[in-house]
Structures are given as structure tokens and as C-alpha cells.
């Protein structure tokens, strides 16, 4: 199939209201997961356990009545959102809004297309995790990350790779902080904003960015010190934050920020540009 045929097929797919609705549902799923992570962070702040990451949120859903069905719905929503980002990499941003005037992928910088593919990969990963928890084979992402990090730390090139990963995660965190502080997230919405939308967008992006940045820095430090337990991702970052002076207060603030990002995800599900 040639490039024009692929472009035409993606054009037709993104004209589908069903596909768009499924992708919007993916943002709603993200909102639920962030609210659950915020709840887990609060539990940690007050002395309870839990994994403060997506796997912890998915495990919480799995334990509820009808959990497997909800997880399959979550997997479908996240997969649809991932496919939508793949479509944006091919035919341009916001394909359902631009019609015949949409910007083609070869008119966009390669890094922007790469960003869409990267975001799609993350969403596909969450969809796969949801499916695994639905069938009862889900695992803590923190434990998996620690295991992989431990193997990589046995080699010099592995430590170097982990440092690069840490720098990448920290850079993503920095971008989230910038996007929140500059209110660039408003470009993703069809509405001009308002007190609530602006508040949850700014707070959510900055809070999530700081957590990502912390996780990235922990990976770098863990690689240097050869400590796999500190390279376990967001869960390790949150629990390290709790060990700091005034850790309880910091965890509560982090929970509120993550919850704000969850609220913004619901806003994007309703008003996001697609």
C-alpha cells in the first residue's frame, strides 16, 4: 500500500465519529487513572501502602466488582487514543477538525511526528497493562522497572542507557512544567478556558511534570549508585518524596496536583481538539 493510500485510509478513519468518541473516552480513562493514583498517594501520605503509578491504579480497578469489564473498556479507550495519535503523526494534528485543509505529516517537523508516536506508545502500553490486569496477569510496573534496571546496571553500557532514559524522563517532566506554567495546554482545547479549566490545567501539568522530573533524576542517581530500587519509576519518586523533610505535606500536595491533572483529562475528553 502506497503512502497516498495509507494517508487516505487514515483520513477516512479519523472522519469516523465512533473512532473520535472512543479516543475521547481514552482521555476519560486517563482521568480516572490519575484520580486513583492521587488517592494512592494520599494513602501513602497517611501511612498506608500501595503502588503510586498506573499499575497501582489498574490493580485498584481490578479489585472492584465488575473490575475486569471496566479494565477491558479502559484498554479499548486507551488503544483508541493511541491510534488517534498515530493518525496525527500521519495526517497532521487535529485531523477531525481540519477537513481538506489539514496539515499533512510531511509538512510537520520530524520531532513533532516523533512526539505523536512516543505518546501513542505510552498509551498502547497502558492499554496492554489494562488488558493484562483484566485477565489476572498484571504486575507492578515498579517491580518490573527495578528488575530491568538491575540487569542493565550490571553492564557499563546499561548504566549509560539508564542515564539517558533518566535524562529523557526528566526532560518530559520539564516540558510538562513549561506547558502548565505557560498555559500552552489551552491550544489542545476547543474552549477559551475559564477559572476551573485554567486552574486544573496549570496545577496538573506542573505537578505531573515535577513528579516526572523527580523520577528521571532518581533513575540517574540510581544508575550511578547501582541501586535498582530507586529506578522504579513514578512509585519510587513518590515514596522518595515522602521520605523528605515535610514529606507528608509534600505527598498531599503531589496528590492534589495529580488529581488536578485527572480533572483536566476529563475536560480534554469533552473539549479537546481532535
Which characteristics define this entry?
DUF1206, transmembrane, 274 residues, mainly alpha, globular, 11 helices, DUF1206 domain-containing protein, 2 domains
Q: Can you put this structure into words, describing what you see?
A:
- With 274 residues, the chain is mainly α.
- It folds into two domains: 139 residues, no CATH class; 134 residues.
- It contains eleven helices and no strands.
- The protein is globular and about 50 Å long.
- The two termini are 26 Å apart.
Summarize the helices and strands and which ones pair or pack.
Elements: H1 3-14, H2 17-45, H3 54-62, H4 67-91, H5 95-98, H6 110-134, H7 141-152, H8 156-181, H9 195-225, H10 234-242, H11 247-271
Helix pairs in contact: 1-4, 2-3, 2-4, 2-11, 3-6, 4-6, 8-9, 9-10, 9-11, 10-11
Which structural class fits the helix and strand makeup?
mainly alpha
Q: What amount of the residues lies in strands? A: under 5%
Please count the beta strands (DSSP E, at least 2 residues each). 0
The radius of gyration computed from the alpha-carbon positions, rounded to a whole number of angstroms, is 19 Å
| Unreliable residue stretches | none
| Largest β-sheet summary | none
Number of helices: 11
- What portion of residues is helical? over 70%
Any idea how many domains?
2
Summed over residues and divided by their number, the pLDDT gives a mean of 88
What's the end-to-end separation, in Å? 26 Å
Compressed to H and E, one letter per element, the order equals HHHHHHHHHHH
Shape: globular
Keywords: Membrane, Transmembrane, Transmembrane helix
Pfam families: DUF1206
Transmembrane segments: 25-46, 66-87, 117-136, 156-178, 199-224, 244-267
Domain DUF1206: 25-91, 120-181, 204-272
